[in-house]
From TrEMBL:
Presence of the UniProt keyword Kinase in the record: yes
Domain Carbohydrate kinase PfkB: from-to ranges: 5-297
Keyword check for Nucleotide-binding: no
Family designation: Belongs to the carbohydrate kinase PfkB family.
SUPFAM superfamilies assigned: Ribokinase-like
GO CC field: cytosol
Species assigned in the record: Paracoccus versutus
Entry-linked CDD domains: KdgK
GO molecular function, one term: 2-dehydro-3-deoxygluconokinase activity
The entry's keywords: Kinase, Transferase
Alphabetical GO biological process terms: D-galacturonate catabolic process; D-glucuronate catabolic process; DNA damage response
Protein name in UniProt: 2-dehydro-3-deoxygluconokinase
């Protein structure tokens, strides 16, 4: 691996979430890969650089996103500007702690984050860890997906560790077959894949988490850790295989960013020297704290435990 830096690649959006006070809504900035970057910044030592790669517009909400990154200690150097598009918006609806989403992202500027191959290659140059997701892929046009995967493969060959969360969201894709095909192509360039078993069972037909591990390893992934919604977590790959059981369960207030925070907790623990089972337990503990609160990003003291 190269330097002490993490680049998270994807789409940040304006988030509207229930405030818990009547019909009032709370405005924030979030998105799966941004959530993970935010939690990484809370968990990692100050000498680690956490950066975000995306694209926004020129309007007020786009500027708020850039200002938010700066205020939260996330490097926005590789957030490009698009004069013809704007930042996307989504709203969270909650029922019994489970969330559903409404999106306004057809004209999202982030759809063009891979339009400039040279800029993307520059963003990844010398990066220690590159993190992206199936949502990152799903918002991109086919040419953009090919550029991103190819550039990540080049960065990996140069020493960057590539981390991928499949984060399967069929509404972003023309059909489920296209989604599954592209997700597995992306996993082939990843050192670490962090899937969620419920998604994998629904769209790939995996009978159990071990089947998910085996399938991604067969596609070329280096290591796989399968999130399981509070159940035992199966992992496997070139760094070892096993099952982590006895994970405490939590009644959620809001499951938004449960997986995103798990990913950050796992990476931060591994970078701190924890072995895989210990990192899984630390990641699970962070995710449990997160789902006790509303919205994607919890108070800093909660994130840091």
């Amino acid at each position: 691996m190269t330097g002490k830096s993490i680049l998270s690649i994807g789409e940040a959006m304006v988030e509207l979430s229930p405030s818990g006070q009547g019909g009032l809504w709370r405005l924030g900035i979030a998105g799966d890969t941004l959530n993970t970057a935010w939690y990484l910044r809370r968990l990692l030592p100050a000498d680690w650089r956490v950066a975000y790669c995306s694209r926004v517009g020129l309007g007020e909400f786009s500027q708020q996103m850039v200002d938010f990154l700066a205020a939260e200690g996330i490097d926005a150097t590789h957030v490009g500007r698009d004069p013809g598009r704007e930042i996307a918006v989504y709203a969270i609806s909650l029922k019994d702690g489970e969330r559903s989403f409404s999106y306004w992202r057809d004209t999202s500027a982030a759809k063009g984050l891979a339009d400039d191959p040279a800029a993307l290659a520059s963003a990844l140059a010398g990066v220690g860890i590159a993190y992206f997701s199936g949502i990152t892929l799903g918002i991109l046009p086919p040419a953009g997906r090919a550029t991103l995967i190819g550039t990540l493969a080049t960065a990996r060959a140069a020493g960057t560790q590539v981390v991928f969360d499949p984060n399967l969201r069929p509404r972003l894709w023309p059909d489920a077959a296209a989604m599954c095909r592209e997700i597995e192509a992306a996993a082939a360039v990843a050192d670490l894949v962090l899937p969620s078993f419920d998604d994998e069972r629904s769209f790939f037909g995996d009978a159990h988490p071990q089947a998910t591990v085996a399938r991604y390893l067969a596609r070329g992934a280096g290591q796989v850790v399968v999130k399981a919604g509070g159940d035992a977590i199966r992992y496997g790959g070139r760094e070892g295989a096993g099952l982590v059981e006895g994970l405490p369960r939590e009644v959620p207030v809001d499951t938004t960013a449960a997986g995103d925070s798990f990913n950050a907790g796992y990476l931060a623990a591994r970078l701190d020297g924890a072995d895989i089972p210990a990192a899984i337990r630390r990641a699970h503990d962070l995710s449990r704290r997160v789902i006790r609160h509303r919205g994607a990003l919890v108070p800093e003291a909660v994130a840091q435990g």
